[in-house]
Design a protein that fits this description.
The termini are far apart. The chain has a four-stranded antiparallel β-sheet with strand order 5-7-11-10, with no helix packed on it. Strands 9-8-12-13 form a four-stranded antiparallel β-sheet, with no helix packed on it. Helix content is 3%, strand content 49%. Its main location: membrane. Interacts with MHC class II (MHC-II); selectively recognizes stable complexes of peptide and MHC-II. Interacts with FGL1 (via the Fibrinogen C-terminal domain). It is found in: Cell membrane; Secreted. Keywords: Adaptive immunity, Cell membrane, Disulfide bond, Glycoprotein, Immunity, Immunoglobulin domain, Membrane, Repeat, Secreted, Signal, Transmembrane, Transmembrane helix.
Length: 158
């Protein structure tokens, strides 16, 4: 996993033997075990790492009015009961441009108003709720539908 993993050597002296993984990948999910020997005593710690993946096809930034697929998956082992999507903290799809199929969001014509924070929440049969947030960028024109811009000859127009 090198060079994505590290230990903070200075923290080891204070009893903190945390492992840092950056960036986390889907294949990193699983059970981790740490053994620390302190004089003649051995301390063992078990930690399970779960990974949630938010996928946008195509990846952000998305071009306005081009098809978009958003999905959310987790390494959690229980059965998935429900997937909820929130856009800028509101339960979505409130916009007419989205439809949902098995927890996956589809949009044939995403608009500039669809940009921003998207939060997926996965609920499992063991009542575990797992969530992740993704910031979607959309490239397009955010202005009047038939803009007319006047500029003086010899000047710059924006």
């Amino acid at each position: 996993m090198k060079p994505r993993v590290s230990l903070q050597d200075s923290a080891l002296r204070n009893g903190n033997f945390s492992l840092r993984i950056d960036p986390v990948r889907s294949e990193d999910a699983g059970l981790y075990e740490a053994w620390v020997k302190d004089n003649m005593e051995v301390h063992i710690c078990h930690v399970e790492l779960g990974v949630i993946t938010v996928t946008f096809i195509p990846p952000s930034p998305v071009v306005e009015n081009e098809p978009l697929v958003m999905s959310c998956n987790s390494s959690h082992q229980a059965s998935l009961v429900k997937t909820c999507w929130f856009h800028n903290r509101h339960l979505d799809p409130t916009s007419r441009t989205f439809c949902v199929l098995s927890g996956t969001l589809f949009s044939l014509r995403p608009a500039m108003s669809d940009a921003g924070s998207w939060h997926c929440q996965l609920q499992y049969s063991d009542n575990k709720i797992i969530s992740a947030t993704y910031n979607l960028q959309i490239l397009g024109f955010d202005g009047p539908t038939n803009p007319v811009v006047y500029a003086a000859a010899g000047s710059a127009a924006h």
